[in-house]
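Q: Give me the 3D complex with GLP.
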Amino acid sequence: MKIHVVENYDEMSREAADILADIVKNKPDCVLGLATGDTPIGMYECLVRMYEAGELDFSAVRSVNLDEYYPISPDNDQSYRYFMNKHLFDKVNIDKANTNVPNGRAEDADVFCREYENTINKLGGMDVQVLGIGRNGHIGFNEPETELKPYTHLTELTESTIEANARFFESEADVPKHALTMGIRSIFKARNIVILASGVEKAEAVKTMLSGNISTLCPASLLCLHPSVTLICDKAAYSLV
Ligand code: GLP
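A: Here is the predicted complex, encoded as structure tokens.
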């Protein structure tokens, strides 16, 4: 794993955006694996600025997102589809037909998950997958468990994640208890992975991820098994390593 420790959130965002921008420039029809949460917002802002400056063209780019709450409607302002439209898709010239976010309204979640995995396969995997990290070391919505599911699946959120994500909802009770998420094997279909961490509240998770031990109890630690991972981490998130 390559580790870049940067000064702060803005520097992390710029570095991540530069990696994605290079991929888009070199391969205009690349497949971007995208993530939500507070962490990648700055990266999306940088990409939008590059697009507005005429440096980037998203017209042939395809995308797949990591996860989505379940059930949730795409026009709920807390859905990850809404997030992606707001922070990136509505602001650049990507064709929405080429964007994939798990369907929070799928009638049969298991059938949908199999289809989503097929979509990833048909795209030939991701050129890059962006990840954030949960306070408990989760990636996507792969929560710490003794066993993990490899492919896209329906999962139950842990109390820690519900509590962490409650800040976006009116109350904790409004946070969906389930989600659809790529599994670890789906994430590993990416040829490159960029994982972002910012802030002291991620320091414990970053420390466990980099401890040298691999455990499903810290899903992010499994990334050590992938051949091309870059961690971009600010000083605060790296402070316990
Ligand atoms: C959420 C998402 C993850 C995200 C993580 C961290 O629950 N499912 O994909 O990486 O938690 O979120 P944030 O960046 O807001 O800290």
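A quick observation: The chain is about 30% helix and 15% strand.
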